[in-house]
Amino acid sequence: MVRGGWCVCRRRLVAARRWEPFEVLGEYTGYLVPPSRDGPYVCKLVQDEADWEAVSVDASKAGNELRFVNDYRGISEQPNVSFSSCFIDGLPRTLLVVTRPVAFGEEFLADYGQSYWAARGGGSKGGGADE
C-alpha cells in the first residue's frame, strides 16, 4: 500500500519517494496508555509541560503505518528517522522526523533506544539514544 510517500512491505516501512532531513513522516498513533505499559509497539511520550501526566502510545491494536518503522540495529549503520515529542493544539504527540536523506525504496529506520532492548533481554544490542 503506497500512502503519503511511504509503503508498508513485509512489516517494514519503505520510502515511495525521496525524503529530505527535517521532513515529518507523520504522527505515531495508537491508544493512550499508562507509562507503565510495555510492548513492542509502545512509544513513551516525553512530557515537557507540568499539566500533563506521562503517557505512552500503544500501536499494537490501533495506529497507522508508522508502527512498521523498525529499529536500525542489524539493518543499517545508523537510523534515518527519529521520534520527536511535541505538543499540537495543547496535546502531547510523537512525530517521526527524517534525519538524513532517504532514497526511494529505502527502509525507514529509527533508534528504539537501549531501554527498549534491555526490557526485552537484548541489552547487548548496543548503541542507542538513551544510553
Model description:
With about 130 residues, the chain is mainly beta. The chain has one domain (about 1-30, about 60-125): Beta-clip-like (Beta Complex), CATH 2.170.270.10. The protein is built from one helix and eleven strands; from the N terminus they run E-E-E-E-E-E-E-E-E-E-E-H. The strands form four sheets. It has a three-stranded antiparallel β-sheet with strand order 1-2-3, with no helix packed on it. The protein starts with a strand and ends in a 13-residue tail after the last helix. InterPro entries: SET_dom, SET_dom_sf.
List the helices and strands and how they pair.
Elements: E1 2-3, E2 6-8, E3 13-15, E4 24-27, E5 31-33, E6 42-44, E7 56-58, E8 70-71, E9 81-88, E10 91-98, E11 109-110, H1 114-118
Parallel strand pairs: 8-11
Antiparallel strand pairs: 1-2, 2-3, 4-10, 5-7, 6-7, 9-10
Short description:
The protein is mainly beta.
Features:
disordered C terminus, three-stranded antiparallel β-sheet, mainly beta
Total helical elements: 1
Strand arrangement across the biggest beta sheet: 1-2-3
CATH class group: Mainly Beta
Q: CATH superfamily name?
A: SET domain
Rg (C-alpha, Å): 14 Å
User: Roughly what fraction of the amino acids lie in strands?
Assistant: 25-35%
Shape: globular
Overall strand count: 11
Query: Distance N terminus to C terminus?
Result: 35 Å
SSE string: EEEEEEEEEEEH
Query: Which CATH architecture?
Result: Beta Complex
Structural class: mainly beta
Helix content: under 10%
What is the fold named in CATH at topology level?
Answer: Beta-clip-like
Q: How many discrete domains?
A: 1
Biggest sheet statistics: 3 strands, antiparallel
Q: Which parts are unreliable, with pLDDT below 50 for 5 consecutive residues or more?
A: 126-131
User: Could you tell me the mean pLDDT?
Assistant: 76
